[in-house]
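User: Second chain of the day. Same drill as before.
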Amino acid sequence: MKELILGGVRSGKSRLAEQRANDSGLEVVYVATAQVRDEEMRRRIAEHQARRPGDWRSVEAGPDLAEVLRREARVDRCVLVDCLTLWLTQLLCDADETLLRREVDALLEALPALPGHIVMVGNETNMGVVPMGELSRRYCDEAGRLHQRVAALCDRVTLTVAGLPLAVK
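Assistant: Same format as last time:
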């Protein structure tokens, strides 16, 4: 089972993903993509960590998310990735175009063959006005394209709004 859970900031997407992972009845590996770059992000990460059950193992992913997923996915395991858009942000800010394309393509190539239950979280950013800044517009474009391609490979896609899950696929 591959699933993508999308939503805006504080929409409940991470809580839903955590619930789905917990409900799977499988061993859970939490793949974290956020990097601590300021105190506010440190607090957000701590909030997420405090919610997780103690028996979940956490793995930090850098740009090589596909490699982490290939290593961690098992038939008897649920792998929760939180979140694709933070991973994409790091690639946009820290990597060149070649690395960004290579890592996105690697993820999309790896995903269909991964065993077990894979739950991925992403920020839906494309429901408002077109941002003014070039990097912000590029981020929205890249996130939209990534979500479309990942969603096409998933068995289930859910949009969260105000803490409520809406089945998309």
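Residues 44 and 50 are 10 Å apart (CA to CA).

User: Great, on to the next one.
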